[in-house]
# Entry
Amino acid sequence: MPKIKMPVKSPHIDMTPMVDLFSLLLTFFMLTTSFRPPEAALIDTPFSVSEKQAPDRDLITVSISKDNKIFFMMDNGPDSTTHYRSDLLKQMGQRYNIPFSAKELDKFSKLNSFGMPVNFMRTWLHAEDSKEKEKMQVGIPTDSTDNQLAMWVRFARLVNPRADVAIKGDGNADYKTVKKVMDIMQENKVNKFNLVTSLQKEEAKLENK
Amino acid sequence: MGEIIEGEKHEKGAKRRPKKHSTNIDMTPMVDLMCLLITFFMLTTAFSKPKVMEITMPEKNADTANQKKPEIAADRTVNILITGNDEVYYYIGLANPNKPPMPVLYKTNYSADGMRKFLLEKNQNVFKQVTELKDKVLKGTLVMADSVLNRKIKEIKKADKKSPIVLIKADEKAKYRNIVDIIDEMAICNIAQYAVVDIAPIELDMIKNAPK
# Structure
């Protein structure tokens, strides 16, 4: 039998439209992703069945690490025209007689959560070494004589009245600390909390009798 | 592929023609890299959002302290006492040292056979109605928007006058995880009314004297 010779076609595929689409998608994702600045402490949140997503704007987050340190975080507001963080620090500075410079305020607005007494804030802002920075995170004081967390919450609510409060506690944190945070919030007329959890599905079935 | 069609140049005098080069570029590595980056960015955007559980605490101020407390039927009240070492107790009714007999304290745990079994049994009426409604929506026999469904569930919860009212109380040894677990059980069991409240001294005594 004579062999049938297939015409040899070059297996070239025109990839131009694919590349076009990919670049478009890539640009989109790159622009929409916002990388979070590193958090002050690693927090292992407990599990729940809740599927509600945390709001990504107008949120005051109080984190409680597993060694019961308290951290505070607030976002900058809906767009680049609002500077809630620097406003907040300015007010705190006025309250505690610490004049923060414009540069320090700007630096603060780019950071994430923090947890130290306000008089260490300046050294923290100027510290370059990340290990040194970590050492300074001793938690925000909540004693009745020097309740700085209450001040942070109060000024944060003044700066952004729409802000919701989220509590991000480590599963192994003491309830005592969480309760203290909640009490401070309630003193500032915050009665609705968002407890940050990780999703884990659970099924409940009623036994038939 | 990226080919550039070169316009032919006609110049008088010089009849030199530039050699036609096919400008094929191998785009495969580029496409590979892009695939990788897109996957990376897609995954990071999707997973970065944390989930939250909402809880509203009873208001605390001078006005509400003086207000008359709402009357709650004692047999509807379930008190959950949370303490250290992942131990959890519950009792039904009110614990008042001036009014014996004291309610019986039961010990339970956080597993599906512990707290959840008891709560489901207590709340079976509401739970059945809510699951039936959710099933219908899931199967498509009943079509409604999420907001309507949520409102209907709320109505069911409100209409039932026998479902338990759960008071969650934790002492100083309790871990935050325990509280979240119990509040989560409320969501799983569709408990209509629950609140996180302060623990009373009498209840601390009850835990201390609880059968091990």
Summary: Chain B touches chain A through 54 residues (CB under 8 Å). Helices of chain B lie at 28-47, 62-66, 115-122, 124-139, 146-159, 176-188, 201-208.
